[in-house]
Amino acid sequence: MMSNAATLAVENLETHFLTKAGVAKAVDGVSFTVGRGEVMGLVGESGSGKSVTGFSIIGLVDPPGEVVGGQVLFNGENLLELDEERMRKLRGNRIAMIFQDPMMTLNPVLRIDTQMIETLKAHDAGIKDDEARARARDVLGQVGIPSPDERLKAYPHQFSGGMRQRVAIAIALLNRPDLIIADEPTTALDVTIQGQILYEAQKLCRETGTALIWITHDLAVVAGLADKICVMYAGRIVEQGKLDDVLDHPVHPYTVGLLGSVPGHNTRGHRLYQIPGMTPSLLKLPGGCAFKERCPRADAACDVHPEITEPVAGRQVRCCHPHLEGQAAS
């Protein structure tokens, strides 16, 4: 990891969806920082607000969604105050996003070389075609696409789903951005290619200082990639800290449950642990702690909305009854 100067500082971010059934607080007071060359894992179940957090940062939340509060400071500049023209200059250049569905990135009627060269020219009008093509070819090779010269001449429909995703990842890497937001980009890839992508992502961050937010529900991916981790539940970050600290000694009951449901954490021959119940609807969140109806530690104290505390040095937790057994309190 390089310098820890904050490339991105998210402060009390709030994103709401205004529906006929009421207001869904998809992102509710989220705060974190990502430094130069740092990889942050954003983890949680489906519907926890991970992807909406990423879309909110890069300015891609459309009605009925709306960012209603907070700050998103990118190299000291508040992205929430910028006009669309300024945001377009940043997107795909200094900030890149890798979507879960590669067809959100690729145009089905244009060849891959056309799309990659135009991406480079959109932010560097002086680049020559030969230089742009060479960079596109090199990046395709980085993400494990064989015969990149030939593949540049192909159309998206001539690629498998996994190959399309690798092209989408390559496009995000083209301009060597300061920040990459990756929304479960390796879900469609086999384990070998996934490992190669994770290696290239770490290498990019280490060598260029790119900050990376890796959004996933897969703790195994984060364990081999991230420097620190934020665990989300029902629109809020419930625990964050250094990766090894959180995975080795989780404090929030939800984090404990997530780790307990990983097959490697279960005793051989025993049933796989699962967190009881379902994630609550964002339109009908219980009063107080959103996790209380699924939490074995819940009591009357959980009827009050828990504030963020630091019960262990370097660990921010939103819980009335954190797991502090065997840990030194801060």
Largest beta sheet, briefly? 8 strands, mixed
C-alpha-based Rg, rounded:
21 Å
* Strand segment tally: 12
- CATH third-level topology of the largest domain: Rossmann fold
Distance between the termini: 26 Å
**Helix and strand composition category:** alpha/beta
- The domain count comes to 2
Strand content: 15-25%
**CATH homologous superfamily of the largest domain - what is it?**
P-loop containing nucleotide triphosphate hydrolases
CATH architecture of the largest domain: 3-Layer(aba) Sandwich
What does this protein look like?
The protein contains ten helices and twelve strands. Helix 3 crosses helix 4. The protein has 330 residues and is an alpha/beta fold. The protein starts with 5 loop residues before the first strand and ends in a 12-residue tail after the last strand. An eight-stranded mixed sheet has the order 6-7-8-3-9-10-12-11, with helices on both faces. Strands 2-1-4-5 form a four-stranded antiparallel sheet. It is globular. The mean pLDDT is 91. It has two domains: 1-94 and 176-270, 3-Layer(aba) Sandwich (Rossmann fold); 105-174, no CATH class.
Which tags fit this structure?
single chain; 330 residues; alpha/beta; Rossmann fold; eight-stranded mixed sheet; 10 helices; 12 strands; 25% strand
Topology (elements, then pairings):
Blueprint: E1 6-19, E2 22-35, E3 39-43, H1 50-58, E4 65-74, E5 77-78, H2 84-90, E6 95-98, H3 112-123, H4 129-142, H5 148-151, H6 161-173, E7 179-183, H7 191-208, E8 211-216, H8 219-223, E9 228-233, E10 236-242, H9 243-248, H10 253-260, E11 308-312, E12 315-318
Parallel strand pairs: 3-8, 3-9, 6-7, 7-8
Antiparallel strand pairs: 1-2, 1-4, 4-5, 9-10, 10-12, 11-12
Helix pairs in contact: 3-4, 4-6
